[in-house]
Amino acid sequence: MFDRIAGVYDLLNKAMTVGMDARWRERAADRAELEPGDSALDVCCGTGDLAVELRRRVGATGRVVGCDFSEPMLELARDKSDRLELSDIEFEWADALELPFRDGSFDAVTVGFGVRNLVDVEGGVAELARVLRPGGRLVILEITQPRRAPLSYFYALWFDRLVPQLGKLAGDSAAYSYLPESVRTFPPPEQLAAMMDRAGLKEIRWTLLAGGIIAIHSGART
Q: What domains appear along the chain, each with residue ranges and CATH number?
């Protein structure tokens, strides 16, 4: 599915979020608390936008790796980083549930709009924590469901009705029907925080944005 939608992924993200997705990624990158020279891993990196934000924070002396299981997404990410003259970002194929990195490899690990696609969310969070060095930070940017009216009504209209129609216009209605379904089955913020706690993270907190539609979780490895 992600292979099929790679070519329209960025365009539809901007349409669905009215361009706010870029700002959300900036805030997620800020929560990683990176310094120049640090190393960062962006899992489920898609077309590379969050990896680019991380690269801007670690600078030319740092290291950023973006990984995904969709080769078409990775190809677009490489093209994007080349255009931005950030070709030192490493983009490679990887399974988020079995990352090909040693324990404690990175100062920060991020995931933007990808954790809810894992078949084992709790196992995925534990794997993300595994590759963090002690004191390193995990940051998860994800869609969540607002619980209070009137935004909860707008959310239902937008995600259940309009988003699938956008996907239909883009030629893949099934993929964008999957989006609201995946959000409905994703754990609410407090449950995701509990998973992070069980993975051995501390200083866990989350911030709700856009009236409760977006959540940024962060925690540090003990």
A: 19-142+187-221 (3.40.50.150)
